[in-house]
Description:
Helix content: 25-40%
Largest sheet: 4 strands, antiparallel
Strand content: 25-35%
CATH architecture: 2-Layer Sandwich
Radius of gyration: 14 Å
CATH class: Alpha Beta
Distance between the termini: 11 Å
Strand order of the largest sheet: 2-3-1-4
Low-confidence stretches: none
Amino acid sequence: MDAPFLYLVRFWVNPDGAAAVLRWLDGGHMRDVVAQPGFLWVRRVRLDQEPEGWPGYLMIYGLESRQSLQAYFDGPAPARFAQERKPFEHHLRMDRSWGAVDAALP
């Protein structure tokens, strides 16, 4: 699970919509994102913190480079994924971060 650049998507799901969101992620979204050029792998982490009772998750994507992520942002995939997310958008709170790996230990 090594990559020089990471893209992090942290999100919380209203329990009423959690099943639909996880079906979307597991039913193809994670696979579709990691199939984009420059993406190497993806991991989903279930967070212990549940503000207001909303389960939290962290998606960690490993990428070849910052340029790979920028090409993804500039391409058509994010708009398509935003459309796919619309039916349960009101059940989600999200934030995104990205950056180069600064240090690592085996």
